Amino acid sequence: MKRTHILQLIVFILLCTASGINAQNWVKLNAGAPIPSNAVIGGLENNMTLYVARGKFNGTWHPGKTWAGAGKCNFGWGNAEKAATDYEVLTAPQGYFTWVTPSGNTLPANVFPGGTDGNLTTCPCQGKVANGSWHPGKTWAGAGRCNVGYGGKEVVCTEYKVLVTSGTPPPNTTTGPDPSPSTTSPSAVGAKMMPFVNDGTKTVTIYKTSATAKGPKVTDITNQGTVNIPVKIGDQFLVEIDGRTDLHPKVFITDLDKGGIIIHGNLPVVEYKSAGPITYEVPDYYPNLVGIDLTILNPRDLVSTINKAKIFEALDPANGVDYFHIGNKLVKYGFLYYGLSTASGSSSVDMSYGFNAFSSSYSGSVGADFPLPKGMSGSLNVGFNNFSNEEKSSTSVYTYTREQKQVFGVDVDPMEARLDSKFKLDVLQVNSVQDAKNIIIPKYGTHYPKTIVYGGDRSAYMIMTSDQYSKVKGYGVDVKASVSKSALQKNGSKENFNSKGKSTGSSDSYASSNVGSGSLSFAYEQNEEARSVLESTKSKYRQVGGTGGFDNSWEVSEGDAAPVGVTLGLISDLIDIKIFKDATTAAQLAPKKAYIEQAIKEYLQGMASVSEPPAVPVVYSVEMSTFKVVKANDDGNRGLKGRVDAYFQVGNNAAVQLTPWVVANYYDPWSAMCFCPDHGDHQFSSLGGKKVYFTQVPESNGALAPIKLNVSAYYSEFDDNLADNSDNLYGSTGLFDIGNMQEGATITKEFYAYHDGNPGWNSILVKFKVTRLPSDFSDLVSNNGF
Question: What angle do CA 737, 738, 742 make, to 5 degrees?
Fold first, then answer.
C-alpha cells in the first residue's frame, strides 16, 4: 500500500473515531417492524423510498439499503448483492444529515461512518445506478466510488455522494417498531411525513399554498437533496426555481402511500440544451401522448391509426423543467425512453386458413394484449376492419410474410406523467354515458398507449381460394417455397411513414406476377399449370418506417422510425385523482369514470370477435412403390398394360378420382418370352416414386369430415396367340380411413390384382404409401372430429 493511501486511511479512521461508531445512531428492526418515520432517506426506485441501513454479515456491519416491507438490508459484497436479516436502519432528526459530493477521492471531515470491511472503515453513500436512480451503498477512504447492491450484483457507481453530519446526534437505538413518531412541526399532527426529493441540478424552495394564494415557505431543498415534509390529502405546494413559480407544476397531495414526491429543480429545457458541452435533444414520441380507438387500430399500420387527441401532456420545449436525461436525450418525467436493437420476423413465409385466423396472426404486434372494460369477455379481432370485404373469406388461404426492426421504445407511467389539461376538462364535462360517447370516444378513442416500440415494419400477403390452393397442391407444389419475399423490389409504390404519421407514399393491390409493383413473386415453377394458378392470385404489401425497399437495402434509424408495436390501457383507468394530480376530488371523478367505462364497453361490443379458428386444409400424397408378378401360368403371353387408380371420399360425398398411374405396354419378344415371375419379380414400369396429391378442405362448419381412400388396379395381359383372349386382372383395397393420421405420418398398404376368370391363375402385387404431409399453416392443425 502506498504511503499516501496509508496516511489517508489513518486520517479517515481518526475522522470516523471522532464521529463515533456506536449503536446510538441506528434502530434495530425486528421482522415485520415498520420503517421509523425519521429514517434517513437514501434514494428512490420506482416510487419506492430507499432508506440508509446496515446489515450484519460475517460478523461485521455493511452499509446498504432497505425499504418498507423488505425485512432485510441489501448491500454489495464480493461482486454480488447480499441480503442480511440482522439489520439496522439509520435515523436522525430532520436536517441532521446532508448528502454531499466528495472532492475527488477525498472524503469530507464530517463524513458519517457505518461499518467495517476487513481493515477498512466503511461509510454510507448513495450511488447513481444505470437507470438514473440513487441507491444507498458503502464507500471508504480512497475508494472514489460507491458500491451498491443492485440487480443481484455489486455495482460500482463513480457518480456518488456521502452522508455528512451537521447537527445534534440522533436518538439512542431502540429494538422493535418505530419508538417515536415524528413531530417535526405543529403541522405534523394528523399528517404523514412525505419525502420531497429534488432530482434536479438547482436548489428549490417549497411553499404551502392554496387554490388562490401563495402560502408560507416550507423549506429549501438542495439539488439531489431530500426533505421530509408533513402532508395531508388535499395539500398543495408551489415549487420555486430561481425566483420563478411558473416553471414547475403545482404539487397536489392525493396519495399518502406514495413513496415520495419528485421535485425537478432543473433549468428550463431551452437553457439546459445549450448550457454545457453536451448537445441535448428531445426525442420524438408524440404517438405515446395520444388516444387510440381500438375499433380502427391496425397493428400492421399503427402509424396512421394512432391518431386521436392528446391525453398526456408533452414536455414544454421552452420552459419545461420536469424532465430527466438518458444519454443526450431529454425525456419528460413519467415517460421512460430506452434504446432497442432487435429484429423480429424474417424472409420466411407463413400461412393461415380463413380470414379470422389470418387477421389475428398477421396483426401480431397487438394480438389480444389489450384490456377490456369490466363485464366484457372474449377476445376482439383487432385489425379486422382494416381489410376490404373481398379480402375476408372463411375459406381462403392467406400466405404472408412480415419483418420488424425495433430501434427504441417509450413507456408511460400514468402515476407520474401528467394528463393534458384539455383531456381533463373534457372528462369533467361527462355527466352521462351518452356524454362519454359524444365527447370522449370520438376525440380520444377507447385506449391509451402504455408502451410503443418504434422502428420499421414491412409486410406482404397473398390470397388464394381454397380451390386454387387445392389445385396447386395437386401439382405437388410447395407454396411457401414458391412464394418469395426476397424478390420484392422497390420498383413501385409503397407506404412509408415517419414517426408522426406523415405518409410519404401509397399502397395498392397487385397481381402476384407484377413484381415490379412490389407484390409477391413466385419462384420458377417447371409445372406451368401450377405457375398459372399462382399468378392468378392477388397480393398486397406495406412498408412503414425506414428507407429502402423489400431487399437488403432496407434500413431503419431513429430519425425515420415509426410505431410498430403497442400495448394498451383503458382510458377509463386514467380517471383517478392520483393521475389527475389536481384539486379534483375522488367524489367528482367516480361517476365520470363509470360513465366512460360503460360507454367504451357498449362501443366495443360492435367489434368483430376472434372466433375459434377452423381446421386447416390437409394434404395427402399417394406414392406407388411396388408392382410385380407373384403368380403366372404361361400361355404364350408377351405383353401387359393397365392402370392403378386412387379415389378419396370425404364424408358422404361422391368419391373423387385422382390422376391414375398408367402401366406402359410391356412387350419384348427377345428377352421376355413369357409372363411369369422370372421376369415379373421387379417393377414392370416406371411407377416407383411417382406421387399424386389431394387436399381435404374443411366443411362449411369449419371441421374436417371423415376421409377415406381406395386404391384399385386394372391390368390386361395381351397374348401373341390370336386364338387366346386377353386375360384381365383386377384388385382393390376398398375404402379405408386416413383421417386420423398424424401430421407427417406415412402408412404402407398392399393388395393383389387377380385373374378375373381364375384367381389362382395370375396375380400381381401392388404396394403403395400414403403420407399426410406437414402442414403449410401457422395455425394449429385439427384432426378429424369423428
Answer: 140
Beta partners for residue 691, in sequence order: 623
Q: What own/partner pairs with CB < 8 Å and gap ≥ 24 does 248-256 have?
A: 248/204, 248/321, 248/322, 249/322, 249/418, 249/581, 250/209, 250/582, 252/581, 252/582, 252/583, 253/194, 254/577, 254/578, 254/580, 254/581, 255/578, 256/192, 256/194, 256/231, 256/232
Position 502 confidence tier, pLDDT thresholds 50, 70, 90:
very low
Residue given cell 362448419 in the structure block: 701
- In Å, what is the CA distance from 128 to each residue of 49, 74, 280, 298, 363? 15, 16, 20, 41, 40
Instruction: Please report the beta strands in 13-157, taking only residues with DSSP state E, as ranges in sequence order.
Output: 26-28, 41-45, 48-57, 60-66, 73-77, 80-84, 87-90, 97-100, 115-117, 120-128, 134-139, 146-150, 153-157
Cell of 684: 414392370
Q: 622 near 712, Cβ under 8 Å?
A: no
pLDDT at 626: 74
The pLDDT score that the predictor gives to residue 334 is: 93
Segment 204-213 mean pLDDT: 88
Query: Nearest CA to 440 among 545, 549, 273, 574?
Result: 574
Domains of the chain (ranges; CATH) run 3-165 (no CATH), 186-265 (2.60.40.780), 287-604 (no CATH), 618-772 (2.60.40)
In the structure, what pLDDT confidence band is assigned to residue 534 with cuts at 50, 70 and 90?
low
Contact 697, 648 (CB under 8 A): no
C-alpha cell at 645: 387408380
Strand 160-165 relative to strand 153-157, pairing? unpaired
Looking at residue 172, the DSSP 8-state letter turns out to be: P
d(CA 12, CA 69): 34
pLDDT by residue (tens digit) across 40-97? 889 888 778 899 999 999 889 999 999 888 899 999 998 899 999 999 999 887 778 8
Distance (Å, whole) CA 254 – CA 134: 25
User: What is the model's pLDDT at position 370?
Assistant: 56
pLDDT recorded at residue 288: 95
Residue 178 carries which DSSP code? -
Lowest-confidence region among 139-143, 168-172, 357-361, 394-398: 168-172
Neighbouring-strand partners of residue 213: none
Q: What is the mean pLDDT of residues 570-584?
A: 94
Of 323, 444, 463, 328, the closest CA to residue 395 belongs to 463
In terms of phi and psi (left: phi > 0; alpha: psi -120 to 50; beta: otherwise), the region of 104 is: left
Instruction: Give pTM, 2 decimals.
Output: 0.62
Cell numbers found for residue 257: 402511500
Give the C-alpha separation, 774 to 776, whole Å. 7
Please report the beta strands in 481-632, taking only residues with DSSP state E, as ranges in sequence order: 483-484, 509-511, 521-522, 538-544, 562-570, 618-631
Other CB atoms within a 10 A radius of the CB of residue 649 amount to: 16
Residues 293-306: pLDDT tens digits?
A: 988 887 777 877 88
